[in-house]
């Protein structure tokens, strides 16, 4: 079933296909990653837990020669992963809510082909501050992500495989119309919903901006919504919020493991015959101005577009913007 709608210069295709089994996706990933001619360098921020940890496991299984750098605070959790990665794994301990630490540790990284940004927090305290007096949630969910990209872009641009940036957050729910432009940095008190919307919408805007820059033509930018994943990110929420989320995920069987989630995200990134075309993922329902020469495809989670067609990538509840974009 194809539904095509036009919004100004933006075309939206909603595409439904047969459900792709995880093992089929894994086989496709393994085939593509095993064909890489250069060693793969992957940097995973927030790689000691949840989706980031799943990325580390999956990359190592599919591409044992890949070098995986994990960045996070939990050294004991990192050591468990490093025992599996062997000599191809490394760990950089850092509090990635602090911009000063990000600037310091990125200087230690000498090569990166894929940058995975999975750090984040869901907190009911929308006004918590870091030691640098930055809103804590935005420091993890937005500011720190942008700084990692900014510091590592020179390496990503020169990647022989084509650099890829994956910001794992929520590419479906950001609403630019609800941004509080007088409190963008959440410097004054606000609600939990305002805080998370700022993070979602800001990620969309920066991903679209970076993808539109000619100097980034060799880099793929992705803002992904992973769907329901079995991670500990909601464990610190009040029980009256935490339990319904887990119950809904269990009843609907929506929750997948971090490794399965990583399989589908890697499936999106593994199609490396991109030439110089810029790809990014962004909000589906809201458009911050016209985007010239683009196509947006809504790809439901665990559904697949034929990889033999180089014009499409697999998406995981994400909207795919294809083409060199120029925001007007």
TrEMBL record:
Picking any one GO molecular function of the record gives:
oxidoreductase activity
UniProt xrefs under InterPro entries: NAD(P)-bd_dom_sf, SDR_fam, Sec_Metab_Biosynth_Oxidored
Entry keyword set: Oxidoreductase
Write down the species: Adineta steineri
Which Pfam families is this protein grouped with? Answer: adh_short
The name this protein goes by in its record: Uncharacterized protein
């Amino acid at each position: 079933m194809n539904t095509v709608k036009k919004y100004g210069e933006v075309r939206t295709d909603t595409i439904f296909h047969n459900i792709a089994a995880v093992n089929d996706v894994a086989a496709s990933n393994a085939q593509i990653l095993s064909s890489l001619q250069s060693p793969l360098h992957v940097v995973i921020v927030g790689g000691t837990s949840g989706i980031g940890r799943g990325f580390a496991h999956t990359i190592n299984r599919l591409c044992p020669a890949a070098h995986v750098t994990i960045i996070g605070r939990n050294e004991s959790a990192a050591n468990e992963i490093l025992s599996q990665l062997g000599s191809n794994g490394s760990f950089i301990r850092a509090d990635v809510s602090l911009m000063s630490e990000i600037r310091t540790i990125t200087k230690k990284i000498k090569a990166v082909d894929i940058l995975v940004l999975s750090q984040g927090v869901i907190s009911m305290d929308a006004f918590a501050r870091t030691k640098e007096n930055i809103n804590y949630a935005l420091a993890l969910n937005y500011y720190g992500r942008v700084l990692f990209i900014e510091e590592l872009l020179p390496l990503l641009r020169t990647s022989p495989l084509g650099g890829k940036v994956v910001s794992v957050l929520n590419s479906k729910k950001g609403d630019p119309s609800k941004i509080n432009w007088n409190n963008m940095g959440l410097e004054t008190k606000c609600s939990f919903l305002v805080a998370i919307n700022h993070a979602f919408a800001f990620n969309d805007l920066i991903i679209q901006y970076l993808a539109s820059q000619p100097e980034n033509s060799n880099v793929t930018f992705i803002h992904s919504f992973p769907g329901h994943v079995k991670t500990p990110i909601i464990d610190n929420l009040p029980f009256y919020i935490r339990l319904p989320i887990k119950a809904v995920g269990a009843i609907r069987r929506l929750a997948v493991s971090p490794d399965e989630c990583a399989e589908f995200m890697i499936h999106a990134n593994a199609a490396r015959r991109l030439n110089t075309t810029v790809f990014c993922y962004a909000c589906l329902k809201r458009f911050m101005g016209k985007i010239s020469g683009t196509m947006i495809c809504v790809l439901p989670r665990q559904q697949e577009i034929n990889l033999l067609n180089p014009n499409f990538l697999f998406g995981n509840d994400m909207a795919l913007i294809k083409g060199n974009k120029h925001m007007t």
